[in-house]
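Query structure, 452 tokens:
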């Protein structure tokens, strides 16, 4: 039976502790007990619990004092208070101090199960709020796969086949090809679609905090750990955990991640408490992980564990017949978002889009269309509206006519990149963001065009 929740029962009566443990364990929960408040706090400091069932009246440290400490250390904790001295005043006071609910002694096994089930549902809602606050649901690109090419049709078929399984998937492709979009599609086709989809950007997390981000930490486990924190595995429990650019993680984290994939359990930083997790893993990379295995910068066993089902996305330049479809999709999307009424993209502008190599792929195309919509002065996107993004077939001084002499795209792109770099005083990060490409792509272009 899979573990539903980690529960701690703090009560000075042995019969009550045993009764709660037996009742809740039958439902697949992992239940631990403490005979007083001090031991309960020690166990909470060492581990992680979804629900705490706490007796209000105990010798030594009172239930109210324990409740106050729990709320300070873990604001998201679900605490159910129990008392054999049921007074409305004590129950109300406990709930004012942050308890989820109360249950008076004596109570039946069914009433205990009911209130625990409600607390778990509330906890799931609390985790969703953590997801939203952390902006973990952010994504790039279209919300659906927009394509008419044969290569993408085959990928869609594969996504539909693998989605309902729990197989681990490795999505490969250049930056901006839609790897996260494919991961989200896999999640939507799965039985986990009503559970969280949590993304981990392996390229943006600081190495020494990576373990805390993945597994969480307990209060006081390191400098700055002022409260207990949920890790991404806990937030994704029951759903899908997406590792974006997994090739960027170090060997140390690779080893720990491999263990989690094998054992399906984690421990928070600073804790010895084992937490069972049930997540489906989808990873993505723009690197050649086979070469990384050969150079011993990526573990071979982790590579094979991740690539049970490999999916390779083609670059946009390899499926140019999708560019008009994508451009029209983004035109409609950003017309609505920017409250504009751009009706079409001119033939010459569309030809410029199709001829361009799109080093930033679909993401770069989306940025280009959004900016063109903002800049367009009438109801049609012209080549001159694309000039600022290195896409135009003509210079600003030339009219948008069929008689205008075309310029080579590489020359226009080189000039535009140089101007953008100058505009941002040589700041490559800001320049790349404004151009709609990543820093790596910008660096390669600067070398290619010998732009200082």
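Result returned for the query:
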């Amino acid at each position: 039976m899979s573990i539903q929740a980690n529960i701690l029962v703090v009560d000075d009566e042995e019969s009550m502790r045993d009764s709660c443990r037996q009742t809740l364990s039958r439902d697949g929960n992992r239940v631990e007990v403490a005979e007083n408040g001090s031991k309960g706090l020690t166990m909470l400091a060492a581990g992680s619990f979804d629900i705490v069932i706490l007796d209000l009246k105990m010798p030594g440290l009172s239930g109210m004092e324990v409740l106050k400490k729990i709320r300070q250390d873990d604001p998201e904790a679900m605490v159910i208070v129990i008392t054999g001295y049921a007074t409305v005043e004590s129950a109300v006071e406990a709930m004012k101090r942050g308890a989820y609910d109360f249950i008076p002694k004596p109570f039946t096994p069914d009433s205990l199960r009911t209130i625990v089930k409600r607390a778990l549902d509330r906890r799931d809602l609390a985790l969703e709020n953590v997801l939203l606050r952390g902006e973990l649901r952010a994504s790039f690109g279209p919300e659906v796969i927009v394509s008419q090419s044969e290569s993408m049709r085959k990928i869609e078929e594969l996504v539909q086949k693998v989605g309902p399984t729990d197989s681990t998937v490795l999505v490969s492709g250049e930056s901006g090809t839609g790897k996260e979009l494919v991961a989200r599609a896999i999640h939507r086709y799965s039985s986990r679609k009503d559970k969280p989809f949590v993304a981990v950007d392996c390229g943006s997390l600081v190495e020494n905090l990576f373990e805390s981000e993945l597994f969480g930490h307990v209060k006081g486990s390191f400098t700055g750990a002022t409260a207990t924190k949920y890790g991404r595995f806990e937030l994704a429990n029951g759903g899908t955990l997406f590792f974006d650019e997994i090739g960027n993680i170090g060997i140390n984290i690779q080893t720990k991640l491999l263990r989690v994939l094998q054992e399906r359990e984690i421990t928070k930083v600073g804790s010895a408490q084992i937490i069972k997790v049930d997540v489906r893993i989808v990873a993505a990379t723009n690197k050649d992980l086979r070469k990384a295995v050969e150079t011993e910068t990526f573990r071979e066993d982790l590579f094979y564990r991740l690539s049970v089902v490999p999916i390779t996305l083609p670059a946009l330049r390899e499926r140019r017949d999708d560019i008009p479809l994508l451009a029209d999709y983004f035109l409609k999307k950003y017309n609505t978002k920017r409250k504009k009424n751009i009706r079409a993209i001119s033939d010459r502008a569309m030809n410029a889009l199709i001829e361009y190599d799109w080093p930033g792929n679909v993401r770069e195309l989306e940025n280009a269309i959004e900016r063109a919509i903002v800049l367009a002065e009438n109801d049609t996107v012209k080549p001159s509206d694309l000039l600022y993004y290195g896409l135009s077939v003509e210079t600003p001084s030339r009219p948008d006519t069929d008689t205008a002499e075309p310029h080579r795209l590489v020359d226009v792109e080189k000039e535009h990149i140089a101007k953008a770099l100058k505009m941002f005083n040589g700041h490559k990060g800001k320049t790349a963001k404004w151009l709609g490409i990543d820093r790596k792509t910008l660096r390669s272009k600067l070398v290619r065009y010998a732009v200082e």
